[in-house]
Input
Amino acid sequence: MSDSTYRIAIVGTGGIANAHAGAVKALPDRAELVGAVDVDVDRANTFATKWDIPAVYPSLTELLAAGDVDLVLLCTPPGSHVPLAAECLAANVDVLVEKPPTLSLDELDALLDAEQASSAQVVCVFQHRFGSGAVRLRELAADGVLGRPLVALCNTTWYRDDEYFAMPWRGTFEVEGGGPTMGHGIHQFDLLLSILGPWEKVTAIAARQARPTKTEDVSMALVTFENGAVASIVNSLVSPRETSQLRFDYEHATVELEHLYGYQNSDWTITPAPGSDAIASAWSTNLPEVPSGHTAQLTAVLDALAAGEPAPVPLAEARNTIELAAAIYASAFTDKPIRRGDLTRGTPYATRMGGPGAPWS
Output
């Protein structure tokens, strides 16, 4: 690190890498892009030219050997996340991993083991946690202003056509880890979990309604939480009117969010219960305008690194989200409720999100 400027490299220069590059460029006084890595060197060169990145490498190994990086942004397909993140840990270089961080719960636990042997850390990209609306909601909930959480709704109803699944790594448990439960809705229910905390039990269904995929294209789950709240979660890729919706009903207010791929303060609505009018002021007073997105999370990560603290969202915290995804599949495919902790290491749905296989496979 040069003074307070973090040297950052991007590994994997596909579509999502542009969001990460944009986040770094939005923080010019704090971070600089020093390298781009891709097995497709021509694509890496094009990406490096676009984002003014001085060095291109054909492999992470060569990037790490150059020794000029403080933080790796891992933007490769999900199936490569674990070995590449482990390589960063072995070199004691912090790594920010795109979602989903691993393809299974067992892989996540193995990566946690590798983290214990390193001075570096694995951080997971769940950028919706960092918009100012979500931050304010967590503050009010923690302060008891809203009262007890009672009911929540979490809907990711998106649309992806058959052509979307023509890419060979999409729509498989082996390479993508699952369907919309793992690859799409995970952002929304991670935000749900960051508000409501540890889940307790899930009962779920999954279906392949229309898409040429080996995974589900729809899942639905009923979830109970340790704090007594109950929630429903819908993840869909067959919904022509696309939207992402969250609703939290507390004792003293309903808080709602509707957006698509990222939100601003204007996407939130708060409805106080009768006699609780002061809550609206508590929500809006001195509320900054921070959109959700990669810039917001990268800012929080750099703040933590500069302070010598663990960066958000650490792998251990993201486990709550990955375990829920695994439990949704386990419940859907076994037709049984699953409790947190049921999927112990080495059991079918901890080893593979789809377990022995979807009923239609």
The CA atoms of residues 74 and 331 lie 31 Å apart.
